[in-house]
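[scheduler] slot 2 assigned
[scheduler] job type: sequence-to-structure, two independent chains
[scheduler] chain ordering preserved from manifest
[runner] begin chain α
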Amino acid sequence: MNQSSFPNLTLRPPRSPRVRLGGYVILARMLDKGRAALAGQAGEYKFNSPMDQHWLRFTGISAEALKVELALGKGDGEILASIQEHASHKREAWEIQQWSAYFNERGPDSDADTLEFFVNGVSRFSQVREDIKTWFDLLDLDDHVSFSGLP
């Protein structure tokens, strides 16, 4: 993969955080954001975002190490093999599945600041959607509205 094939996130969103790579949620989206950042085409998206950091802590991979692998032009499969080899937290398939299931369904914490942030985020995109319950729902809604304009 060369840099000209890196995603341009000013034209389309990264993959949904729900897309699994090696069983991991978040990873495919993070790779898209990292590649786009390397190509100067990340737009509003941030590599090593707070959500990315959950994945980085779970695996024990540093954002810098992952970005080095991406800069080498490695594809998703090669990156996944490198993660499996170099992660300081080696995880069994069941651990990855459980972690991913948790994050797939994770909503805002019950503290007032987090709830307010979440509600304000949803209301920026829609005043009528009542089905947005998780952080992944909010990210998918943001991506959709940002690129199609329809809530």
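[runner] end chain α
[runner] begin chain β
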Amino acid sequence: MSHDSEVGRGRPGSIFVVSDSIGETAELVTRAAASQFDSGRFPIRRFPYVSDTASLLEIINEARAGNVVIVYTLVEPRLRDTMREAAHTLGIPTADIMGPVMEAIARVTEMAPRLEPGLTRRLDEEYFRRVEAVEFAVNQDDGKNPRGLESADCVLLGISRVSKTPVCMYLARRGVKAANFPLIPEVELPPEIVSLPSSRLIGLTADAQYILDIRRQRAKVIGLRPGAPYAEMDRILKELEYADEVFRRLGCHVIDMTRMAIEETASRILEFLRKGENSV
């Protein structure tokens, strides 16, 4: 049931760390506090995933055999009450890390805590998943590395100026690994895209005039000469026609994002991806 962070079973000066989750937070706080005393090298034993009264009382009884301090993070009031009352009866000093903080937040917010062990770890995992997704979106932007497309949750296809990159970054902040690839009539699609299932392919399109307006503004910013094909209607119509053909051939789910906010486009993609997951 227990995990020894350092050798020591109830020896003088030992600290028991008890948690209904993995106990990393409690051990981190304990080590920070212990560092203020002498060398700070107190034997620390961690007891993770304590979820019932019997296990808790067993730990408390073991602690009574030595000069032990119990530090605990228990979200269930029943377990916290048991720890507090039993330890007090036996004269064992304790430190409740979680309870007082939750109670203070509850008073200020007038909200009830969820009382679910391990939420911090789940939040950490979600954070790192989002960071990984952002890195993936950057590395896979604008068709930089077609070999990495196989690990994408979705790939956005479309001609220039249909907001592929900002939509990918928005999806990444939601933990979705999104890549994008520009559709250019003169450039053949890489086999990595052709081999992907249609459930992971999203085609972005828009009204030709809408794209023309954006491209002309962009042309001024980057200093293109007037009359450059990039910002001409004939060229845009040719690209849109090619994109439509690619969408049909690959069976892409197509979204017309003309004057649509990035958030709305991303929301529609998330809905499409969720439906695909539910159909599996």
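[runner] end chain β
[qc] chain β: The mean pLDDT is 86.
[scheduler] slot 2 released
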